[in-house]
Structures are given as C-alpha cells and as structure tokens.
C-alpha cells in the first residue's frame, strides 16, 4: 500500500513536477480553493470542494482553435497545435471525475475533437475520496458515490483519521504516476476513513419520467422566474460543455477562440433575423434542467449531472438544482394523489 | 491524431449576384481538386456548411447548389449581421472560409418516380433550390414537379432568372405569388399568401412528397392545407434553421429537445417534428 502523510501533498506535487508533470491541485487562491496549477509554496487544500472542476483542464474557458494572418483583403491560415502537456490533476472530487464521461462522449460521439482529446490523453486524474460533504452535495442521487472511482486513474483515500492518504493506482496512468512519485510515497498499512454520508435527495429516474411528460408544465414558469441568467451555474458545472466561437482580430492577425457559453444567456439561441426559440428565461432554464436530466441520459445513456452541487453553492438566486429536482418529485407525487 | 475539426477550407469567390434587397448569392470555388472531390464525396442535398471570414466569424447556411453541379458551391444569405455583411462585401476573386458539408439530407433517392411539390417563402427558397436543381438535372427519374413560391414583394423574390427558367420549362409547374400589396403594375403571378395559393393550386398527394421551407408563420398555415389535401405527415419535409456555432454536435445550442438539428437534421419530416417540444423551435 502506497502512503503519503496528509501534510506532505506538496512533496508529492513537487516530486511529480520534477518528473515533468504539470501538476494541478486544489489550492488556496485568495478567499477560495481553486483547482489550479501548483507551484512551490502553494497551499494544497483537501478539506474544501474547489470552486471549479476538472473540466477547466480539459476544456478550458477559452481556447484558440484557429489562427489567421491578415494581409489586406486576404488571409492565410496558420497551424494551431492542441495542448498536450502531460498533466496530473491531484485531488479531483469523484463527482468531477465521473463528469468526464459526459465530456468524453460529447467531444467524441461523432466527430472527434482533437483539442479535447489531446488534453485528455495527457491528463492523469487522481481523485480524492470524500470523507465529508456539505448540504449541496448530492452525488448519491445521480448514481455517484463519495468514494466513487469512475473516471479516475488513481485515488487518494484519506486514512487513519485524516493523518495519511492511501494512493491507489487504478490503471496504466495511475501506475506511471506512482512510479514517478518515487520515494515520496511510503510503503505501509493504513485504514481508509469511512466515506462521507451523502443522503439520497431524489430519484433521478423519477425526475426523468416527469420531464418526459411536462415540457409545458406551469412549474417551469414558477421555477424559472428566479433565474437571473448570469451563467454561473454553467461555468462551474463539470458537465456543461456548450461553447461559443468568436473571432478576435487585430490589423495583422485574427484568432478564432471557443469560449464557454451558457444556455441561460438570452443570446444563446437568438437567430440573426430576430427569432429566438428560447425567448424567455423560463424556457432557457427549462433547457438546462432538461439537458442534464433528460436529453443526456436519453441520448448518451449516462447521467448529465453528477451531483457536485456547485451550481447551488454559487447561484445568486438560490436555485440549487437538487432542490428543483426534489420539487419535481413533489409535483409528480401530487399528480399521483 | 485527427485533424482540426474547426479548420475551414479557403474558398475563392468566383461570382456574386444580388438576388433581392440585402440578399446575395456567392459562387465559391475550392482551393484544390482534393478539397473539391472530398466535398462532393459527402455532399447530398439538404446539407449545410459554416461560411466565414477570419476576423468576422462564421455563419451557418445551407448549400444552395446541387450535387449535380460539381465545379463549385453556392450559398444565398441575407445581409443581417457582422458575418453576413462581411461575406456580402467580398469581391470576385477574394477568399472566404467554408467547412462542411454537415447534417443530414433530403432522401431524394427514395422519391424516384414520385411527384414532388415544393412550397417556399421568401429567403427560404435556397434550401429547396439545391433539391429543385438536383431533381431537374435528373429530370427523368422523377414524376411531376410543382413549385409554389411566394415573397412579400416582387423585389423580395430570389433567383429571379431561375424562376423565369423554371416557368418556361414544360416539365415544371411554377406558381409564384406575392403578398397583397407587394405586386408591381406588370406582375404576372398570383397575389396572395403562400398557404392560400397552395390551397388554390391544390396539388394531389397521390404518389407525392411535399417540401416546405419558409418563415414560421408560412409553415404554420401551410401544413394544415397540405394535411387537408391528404399529404401524410411522413411525406412532408422541412428544414430547421436553428442557430449553430460548431455544426458538429458539440457546442450545444441547436437542440430541439434531445434532437441536434446539426446532426439529426436539418431535414425533418413533419411526422418527426410533431414528436418534438415546440417551445424550442
């Protein structure tokens, strides 16, 4: 069994960095804990859920996908290479690792996206099993577990009352990581701490069943009216993958970027001619819930939400998606009676 | 390693034509023989592409020329925003970008021997024009061809030269109309909204398929007329024109329910559309 002392994660990061990995971990960043690139002196925090998910390192919020030299009225395309820097993400939460299945599928279900795939192939995901959860966590309601290993190449399990971590490799990338860590990891025995208790808040299949018959329900108006359309939920969401493509040009060069976008924004579906199929916030918010709990499960046979709870923690209007799902279950029960 | 999906081809503007106020057609030539052959190996009528100019961005339009004309492609669009204005301003010999073809196609191979009814309004003739020319270029394989096309005013009719060609052909029945008030003193066509004219013409549904493209209001009132004439929803085709960025099932904005317009469409039968949530269209 490979062990590392709980206060020695920086040594692990340093050892991996010395072997050429770009290391990202949950790091104290001002007032928040953020999954970001580690550098010597950074404080790794395993006691708080980072504000962002692993998505940021596979599908960054802005990425260059095209580059053109502008010459008068003409232009010449320049090559754009995808980022394939060997990277290890240490301390990713199980819900965030589970969410990679959605991104893997979206970026490969038909056309293969090389920008995503190059990063994905170069990333080693080390999850941190959760021994504590807050009121927003609901992984167990959507098929996850606080100690789940879906999407993980290795897992760090808190052990011996939080004094140590067991580093357990789960595949080729995980074993390579353990080898690279070398003597920072000690051989020994430790007892894994019990996983967090995350109560089941709702039955996702019942939510999906209600959604299938209630596209026109008045409940959408009631629920959706609170939404400010700020997009914070989509930005923090580990499975949200919608993007915009925009050109940024100077006199000499134009760069084509794909940037995170949100179905909560009013311009998201607006046609150039003026028609907007999702004309109000209710329709836009309905799409968000439908996409997670109906469309992705139907289309890709997997949950579209992994219960990380970030949207609820961040929403300035207090719209936690788990509460909405509970509301939907209540509406379904009320009809049954 | 696969190639960059978002890397377009550089196309040369070979010709341009103003069709109607703010509506322009561009004829585009491929950068090389490989690109041309690669495009036509995949292209079927109904598919679309992303047309762009670095610095302005990309816009989605149908390919308005048929796969039977293999030297070039054409697109027709309205100058309405930043990208379409930049494209409309390109001069002959200058370049734009294109990626595609994407999406599904009209199943015209299954229509051999059948009569084909085209119903179009305004700027929505381009997605049907590729089908019309494809059918006319293979004229003997299909039955009667009827085209009912209307616009708000005479000036707003697109492809005016081609309308004259089609009208002169003995093997095409063309009916053109303009909205009341949109006629000119020498207008020879009908005066009335497309659904009304469709009802007047009353094409037979026997061994026929109908293709309907137009503004939502025209489609809304044309479908009951077709139903009244006896066209089953499975034999009525249309295209959805939702906003897109990627065109390849990733950017997440064109969906209607769980259906991706860019991958499962843009061509749908009315029967398919009836099962989709209408709030998203």
Tally the beta strands of chain B.
Answer: 13
User: At the first level of CATH, what is the class of the largest domain in chain B?
Assistant: Alpha Beta
Q: What would you report as the Rg of chain A, rounded to the nearest angstrom?
A: 22 Å
Return the CATH topology of the largest domain in chain B.
Rossmann fold
The number of helices of chain A is 12
CATH architectural designation of the largest domain in chain B: 3-Layer(aba) Sandwich
Number of helices of chain B: 8
Shape of chain A: globular
Order of helices and strands of chain A: EHEEHEEEHHHEEEHEHHHEEHHH
Given as residue ranges, the uncertain stretches of chain B (5+ residues, pLDDT < 50) are none
Largest interface: A-B, 54 and 44 residues
- The radius of gyration of chain B is 18 Å
Strand order of the largest sheet of chain A: 3-2-6-7-8-9-1-10
The biggest beta sheet of chain B is recorded as: 7 strands, mixed
Work out the strand percent of chain B.
25-35%
Low-confidence stretches of chain A: none
Give the number of domains of chain A.
2
Task: Note down, in words, how this protein is organized.
The complex is a heterodimer of chains A (337) and B (281). With 337 residues, chain A is of the alpha+beta class. Chain A has twelve helices and twelve strands. In chain A, helix 7 (204-213) crosses helix 10 (281-300) and helix 7 (204-213) packs across helix 12 (321-336). The longest helix of chain A is centred in the C-terminal third of the chain and has 20 residues, at 281-300. Chain A is globular, with a radius of gyration of 22 Å. The N and C termini of chain A lie far apart (54 Å). With 281 residues, chain B is α/β, with parallel strands linked by helices. Chain B has three domains: 9-102, Elongation Factor Tu (Ef-tu), domain 3, CATH 2.40.30.10; 108-239, Rossmann fold (3-Layer(aba) Sandwich), CATH 3.40.50; 241-281, Dihydroorotate dehydrogenase B (pyrk subunit), domain 3. Chain B is built from eight helices and 13 strands. In chain B, strand 1 (9-20) and strand 2 form a beta hairpin. In chain B, 52% of the residues are buried.
């Amino acid at each position: 069994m490979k062990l590392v002392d709980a206060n020695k994660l920086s040594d692990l990061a340093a050892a991996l960095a010395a072997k050429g990995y770009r290391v990202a971990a949950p790091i104290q960043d001002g007032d928040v804990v953020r999954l970001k690139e580690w550098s010597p002196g950074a404080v790794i925090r395993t006691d708080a859920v980072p504000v962002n998910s692993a998505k940021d390192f596979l599908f960054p919020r802005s990425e260059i996908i095209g580059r053109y030299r502008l010459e008068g009225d003409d232009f010449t395309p320049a090559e754009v290479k995808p980022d394939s820097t060997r990277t290890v993400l240490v301390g990713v939460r199980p819900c965030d690792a589970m969410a990679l299945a959605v991104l893997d599928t979206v970026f490969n279900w038909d056309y293969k996206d090389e920008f995503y795939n190059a990063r994905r192939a170069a990333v080693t995901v080390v999850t941190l099993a959760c021994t504590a959860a807050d009121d927003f966590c609901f992984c167990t309601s959507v098929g996850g577990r606080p100690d789940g290993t879906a999407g993980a190449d290795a897992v760090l399990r808190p052990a011996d009352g939080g004094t140590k971590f067991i580093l357990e490799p789960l595949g080729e990338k995980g074993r390579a990581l353990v080898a690279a860590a070398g003597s920072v990891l000690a051989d020994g025995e430790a007892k894994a701490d019990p996983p967090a208790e995350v109560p089941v808040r709702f039955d996702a299949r019942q939510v999906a069943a209600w959604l299938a018959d209630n596209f026109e329900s008045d409940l959408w108006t009631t629920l959706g009216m609170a939404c400010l359309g700020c997009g914070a939920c989509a930005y923090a969401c580990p499975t949200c993958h919608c993007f915009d493509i925009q050109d940024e040009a100077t006199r000499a060069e134009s760069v084509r970027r794909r940037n995170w976008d949100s179905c909560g924004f009013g311009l998201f579906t607006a046609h150039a001619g003026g028609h907007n199929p999702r004309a109000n916030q209710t329709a836009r918010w309905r799409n968000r819930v439908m996409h997670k709990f109906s469309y992705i499960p139907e289309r890709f046979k997997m949950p579209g939400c992994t219960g990380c709870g970030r949207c609820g923690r961040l929403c300035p209007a207090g719209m936690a998606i788990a509460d909405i799902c509970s509301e939907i279950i209540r509406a379904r029960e009320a009809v049954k009676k | 390693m696969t190639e960059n999906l978002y890397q377009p081809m550089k196309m040369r503007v070979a010709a341009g034509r103003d069709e109607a106020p703010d509506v322009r057609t561009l004829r585009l030539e491929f950068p090389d023989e490989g690109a041309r052959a690669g495009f036509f190996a995949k292209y079927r009528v109904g598919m679309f592409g992303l047309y762009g100019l670095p610095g302005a961005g990309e816009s989605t339009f149908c390919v308005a020329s048929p796969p039977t004309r293999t030297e070039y492609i054409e697109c027709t669009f309205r100058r309405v925003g930043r990208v379409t204005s930049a494209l409309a301003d390109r001069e002959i010999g200058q370049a734009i970008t294109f990626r595609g073809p994407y999406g599904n196609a009209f199943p015209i191979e299954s229509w051999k021997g059948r009569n084909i009814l085209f119903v179009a309004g305004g700027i929505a003739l381009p997605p049907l024009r590729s089908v019309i020319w494809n059918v006319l270029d293979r004229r003997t394989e299909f039955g009667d061809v009827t085209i009912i096309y209307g616009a708000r005013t005479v000036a707003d009719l697109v492809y005016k030269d081609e309308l004259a060609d089609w009208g002169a052909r003995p093997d095409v029945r063309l009916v053109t109309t303009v909205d009341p008030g949109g006629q000119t003193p020498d207008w020879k066509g009908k005066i009335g909204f497309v659904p009304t004219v469709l009802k007047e013409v009353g094409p037979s549904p026997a061994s026929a398929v109908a293709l309907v493209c137009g503004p939502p209001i025209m489609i809304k009132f044309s479908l009951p007329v077709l139903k009244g004439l006896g066209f089953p929803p499975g034999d009525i085709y249309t295209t959805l024109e939702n906003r897109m960025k990627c065109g390849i099932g990733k950017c997440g904005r064109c969906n209607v329910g769980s259906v991706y317009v860019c991958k499962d469409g843009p061509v749908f039968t009315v029967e398919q559309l009836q099962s989709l949530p209408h709030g998203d269209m």
